Structure formats: structure tokens, C-alpha cells
């Protein structure tokens, strides 16, 4: 069996209502995995559990072969990048300030991106380089999503979690984003999405059905 | 210059009649504040009579243990007020705020008590009780604002907090902006006030001393000590309260404990 970046065993999770019942699923390493499901069915909860934002009620989640606990959570998170659904919440000042903010953290200082790398990603995602000076909050949601993707890519993490990454992107931007992600080596990507173009580009798709994930 | 002029109770109560003017304005514009004005002034009157009585007896008895007990009561009530007005869970958050207030108070008292009143008079009730009251009382509103702002930001910007945390920020880094904004916004008004002392207003300690017949030059020395004391007390009270309460507000996984909010 190939290596798995995320392994979920017998996960039972309730949040107002039952979300997962005895969920068992493995997310294979270095693949792009799509997750589809209706609103309010707990897709975002799954990310929150993997990231340790919500506590596990019963069952087990292993990330990079380690069960999440308070001793390893910082280390595990430092190997993950995340694009949240509410992308507007991540802004802090200008686009440039938002972009470089994660690299002010001690753990990321050694991978601070150079301007050429940033410019290259702007070009790949059809973003105007002059946007760097704009206030992040003045951008369209689609532009914010692409900035969020650039941050996730620049962080060079082993696992990238994308929550509705293309919900406000047009088809051209969606395809460009997918092409850019496809260039990443040794990276596992898990995308929660309703967008068929996005999901069709995944190596495989899971569908959230009746408190479980079913491989399609 | 040791004489002071007493105010007759009759004239004092008569002077309160001037409240008819603000009450009239509030009434005309249906602000709903009329009842609150009357109640607040009535409460103030009763509370001040009690303060006058207990200060009179505390100064007479001059017992260090009673003085300390009184200060502890002031700190506990002050901390409870901070937590309540910051709309936080009093059961969870009062103890860390007491810790913050106590730290600020002790350090400010060291400055005021040991350094300035080197003669050793400070620990008598005459100095200790009113000056402690000034330190705690003047720190209260700024501490309320600081603590409230910090937790308001944590509550409203949880997603931003988690985003930074997931992308590698440690606890200090992920809370840095909230700490910065809480300190900046809570201390700006106090610093503006301090900067205006003597220019557009004469503060209570000085006013009181001058009215009581003190030499204005002595009054300003006391004022300087009091301002330095309450500014230090307040800064430490906010900072230490936040540092202590963060341990309850955020668990080992960096998750926000939403039970802290009311």
C-alpha cells in the first residue's frame, strides 16, 4: 500500500448534529484529492480536525504518520498550508503585507520568498503585479483566493488543504490555478470543492455521504 | 497653609439641585437617562458617605493588616469589574485578572511606597489607603478597555488567528497583533490625558491637596508620583492579566476556549 499523508480511523464527530460516524479514510501522499459534499455536511470540520482546530471526540487522525497531540501539533502544522473558505479573513493591510506575513513567523523565516518567485506566481495565476500595493480587502474574492494559493505554494509545505479554493474564480483562473498546483512535487493536496472543473483535475474524489466519505 | 474650608451639608445638598439642568436636557430628548442619573448620583452619595466613614476609622485604627485586607478587597472587586465589563466569564477569568492587578499594584507600590516615601510613612492608613485607591481606581477603566479589546479581537478574528497559527505562528506570534492593538488603543486616551495634565486640567490629587491647603509644589510632587504609579500599575495590570488569562483562553493546541466569553 502506498504511503498516506492523512489517515483517519473510526472517527466519530458531532457538531450540532452527527457529522462523521465511524469514518475510516486514507489520503494518499503526493496526490491531489478532491472532497465533495453539500453545505453543512462537515467538510470544513474535517479540515479543522486535521489541523487540530476542533478536538477529536472519538477515533484517531494520523498526519504524517503521527497521531495529533499537544506535543507534536506545532510541528505538524508547520508542514501544512491552508486556504480557508472565508478568504477575506486572512488580510492584514496591503496584498504584499498579507503575502509576506507568514514569513515573519520564526519557523518560516528561512523560506522567505524572493520577489522573482512572487512575480512568477502572479504571472502564472494571471494576477496583475501592481495589485501588491493594493489593500487586500479591496480585492475581489477570486483575486483573494489566488493570493491565498500563492501563500500556500510559497510556504513549500508537504500538505496543502484548500477549502473552496475556486468558488469565486472564473474558468480561466481555475485552470491556471490547477496547472500551477500540478507543478508542485512531493505535495499532497486535499481540496474541498463544489467546482466540477476543480474536482475533475483531482487524482481522485471522495464524496461526503451519510456521515461517511465514499471514494468515487 | 494648613487650613481647609468645610462644606455645610445643607449647602452641599443644595448644590445637587443644579442637576435639574442636565436631567432636563436628558428628559427633553427622551434619552432614558433621567432615572439613571438620579440613581447614579444617589449611589455615589451613599458610597462616598461610606468611604468617608471607613477612611475616618481606618486612619484612626491605622492597622497594617486591615489596610492590606482592604486593598485586597479593592483588587478583587476591581478585577471582577474588569472581567464583567469586558464581557468575559467571571468564573474563568477573574483569577488571572486578579493576578495581573496584584502584580501591577505591588510593583507600583514599590515605586511609590519605598522609593518616594522613603521615610516609611507610606504604610500608614492615611497614605496607603487613598493612594492604593488612586492606583487601582485610575487603572481600572484602561484595564477594562485593554482586556475587552484583546478578547473582542480574539472573538471576532478567530479565523485570522487560526490562519496564522496553522501557517506556523507560535502562540506569541499569532496573538502579537491583538496584544499590540489592545495596548495601543487602551493606553492612547490615558497618555493623552497625562500629556494634558497641568495644561487643560488639574487632576484630583493636586486639586484635593491645594484645596486642603498644601503648597502647590508639594501637590505636584504627589501628582507626579501618583501618575507614574497608576500608569505603571495599569500597564502591568493589562499586560499580566492578558498573559495569565491567555493560558485559560487558549489551550495547548492553540484552540480558543469559547467558554471564556459571556
SSE pattern of chain A, N- to C-terminal = EEEHEEHEHHHEHEHEE
By secondary-structure content and strand pairing, the structural class of chain A works out as alpha/beta
Question: Which H/E pattern describes the elements of chain B?
Answer: HHHHHHHHHH
Strands of the largest sheet of chain A, in order across it?
A: 6-7-8-3-9-10
Radius of gyration of chain B: 21 Å
Strand content of chain A: 25-35%
Principal-axes shape call of chain B: globular
**Alpha carbon gap, first and last residue of chain A:** 19 Å
The residue ranges of chain A in which pLDDT falls below 50 over 5 or more consecutive positions are none
Provide the residue-averaged pLDDT of chain A. 92
Based on DSSP secondary structure assignment, what is the total number of beta strands of chain B? 0
The separation of the N and C termini of chain B measures: 52 Å
Radius of gyration of chain A: 17 Å
Secondary structure layout:
The complex is a heterodimer of chains A (216) and B (262).
Chain A: E1 4-15, E2 17-28, E3 32-36, H1 43-50, E4 58-63, E5 66-67, H2 73-77, E6 80-83, H3 95-100, H4 115-124, H5 141-154, E7 159-163, H6 171-182, E8 188-192, H7 196-200, E9 204-209, E10 212-215
Parallel strand pairs in A: 3-8, 3-9, 6-7, 7-8
Antiparallel strand pairs in A: 1-2, 1-4, 4-5, 9-10
Chain B: H1 9-15, H2 20-28, H3 34-61, H4 64-85, H5 90-116, H6 125-156, H7 158-166, H8 171-196, H9 204-211, H10 216-249
Helix pairs in contact in B: 3-6, 4-5, 4-6, 5-6, 5-10, 6-8, 6-10, 7-8, 8-10, 9-10
Structure characterization notes:
The complex is a heterodimer of chains A (216) and B (262). With 216 residues, chain A is α/β, with parallel strands linked by helices. Helices cover 28% and strands 28% of the residues of chain A. Chain A contains 7 helices and 10 strands. In chain A, the strands form 2 sheets. Chain A has a 6-stranded mixed beta sheet, with helices on both faces. In chain A, strand 4 and strand 5 form a beta hairpin. The radius of gyration of chain A is 17 Å and the shape is globular. The longest helix of chain B has 34 residues, at 216-249. Chain B starts with 8 loop residues before the first helix and ends in a 13-residue tail after the last helix. Chain B has helices at 9-15, 20-28, 34-61, 64-85, 90-116, 125-156, 158-166, 171-196, 204-211, 216-249. Chain B is globular and about 65 Å long. Chain B is built from 10 helices and no strands. Chain B has 262 residues and is mainly alpha-helical. Chains A and B meet through helix 2 and strand 6 of A and helix 7 of B.
Amino acid at each position: 500500500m502506498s504511503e498516506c499523508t492523512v489517515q483517519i480511523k473510526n472517527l466519530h464527530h458531532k457538531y450540532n448534529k452527527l457529522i462523521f460516524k465511524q469514518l475510516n479514510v486514507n489520503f494518499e501522499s503526493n496526490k491531489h484529492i478532491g472532497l465533495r459534499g453539500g453545505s453543512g455536511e462537515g467538510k470544513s470540520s474535517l479540515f479543522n480536525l486535521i489541523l487540530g482546530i476542533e478536538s477529536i471526540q472519538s477515533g484517531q487522525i494520523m498526519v504524517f504518520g503521527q497521531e495529533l497531540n499537544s506535543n507534536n501539533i506545532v510541528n505538524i502544522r508547520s508542514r501544512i498550508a491552508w486556504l480557508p473558505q472565508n478568504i477575506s479573513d486572512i488580510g492584514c493591510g496591503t496584498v504584499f503585507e498579507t503575502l509576506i506575513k507568514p514569513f515573519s513567523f520564526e519557523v518560516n523565516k528561512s523560506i522567505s520568498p524572493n520577489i522573482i518567485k512572487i512575480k512568477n506566481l502572479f504571472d502564472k495565476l494571471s494576477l496583475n503585479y501592481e495589485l501588491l500595493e493594493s489593500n487586500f480587502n479591496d480585492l475581489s474574492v477570486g483575486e483573494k483566493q489566488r493570493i491565498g494559493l500563492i501563500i500556500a505554494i510559497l510556504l513549500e509545505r508537504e500538505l496543502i488543504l484548500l477549502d473552496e479554493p475556486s468558488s469565486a474564480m472564473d474558468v480561466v483562473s481555475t485552470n491556471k490555478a490547477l496547472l500551477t498546483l500540478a507543478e508542485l512535487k512531493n505535495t499532497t493536496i486535499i481540496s474541498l470543492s463544489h467546482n466540477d472543473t476543480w474536482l475533475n483535475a483531482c487524482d481522485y474524489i471522495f464524496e461526503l455521504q451519510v456521515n461517511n466519505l465514499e471514494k468515487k | 497653609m494648613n487650613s481647609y474650608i468645610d462644606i455645610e451639608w445643607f449647602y452641599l445638598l443644595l448644590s445637587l439641585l443644579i442637576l435639574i439642568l442636565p436631567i432636563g436636557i436628558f428628559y427633553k430628548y427622551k434619552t432614558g437617562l433621567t432615572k439613571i442619573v438620579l440613581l447614579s448620583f444617589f449611589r455615589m452619595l451613599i458610597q462616598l458617605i461610606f468611604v468617608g466613614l471607613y477612611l475616618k476609622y481606618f486612619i484612626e485604627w491605622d492597622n497594617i493588616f486591615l489596610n492590606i485586607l482592604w486593598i485586597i478587597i479593592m483588587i478583587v472587586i476591581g478585577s471582577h469589574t474588569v472581567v464583567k465589563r469586558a464581557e468575559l466569564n467571571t468564573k474563568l477569568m477573574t483569577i488571572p485578572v486578579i493576578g495581573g492587578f496584584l502584580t501591577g499594584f505591588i510593583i507600583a507600590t514599590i515605586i511609590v511606597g519605598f522609593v518616594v516615601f522613603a521615610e516609611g510613612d507610606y504604610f500608614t492608613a492615611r497614605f496607603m489607603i487613598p493612594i492604593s485607591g488612586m492606583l487601582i481606581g485610575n487603572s481600572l477603566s484602561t484595564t477594562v478597555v485593554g482586556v475587552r479589546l484583546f478578547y473582542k479581537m480574539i472573538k471576532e478574528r478567530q479565523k485570522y488567528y487560526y490562519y496564522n497559527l496553522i501557517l506556523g505562528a507560535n502562540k506569541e506570534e499569532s496573538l502579537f497583533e491583538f496584544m499590540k492593538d489592545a495596548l495601543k488603543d487602551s493606553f492612547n486616551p490615558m497618555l493623552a490625558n497625562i500629556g494634558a495634565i497641568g495644561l487643560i486640567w488639574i487632576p484630583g490629587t493636586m486639586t484635593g491637596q491645594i484645596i486642603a491647603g498644601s503648597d502647590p509644589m508639594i501637590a505636584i510632587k504627589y501628582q507626579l508620583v501618583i501618575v507614574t504609579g497608576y500608569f505603571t500599575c495599569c500597564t502591568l495590570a493589562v499586560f499580566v492579566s492578558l498573559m495569565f488569562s491567555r493560558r485559560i483562553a487558549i489551550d495547548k493546541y492553540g484552540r480558543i476556549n469559547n467558554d471564556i466569553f459571556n
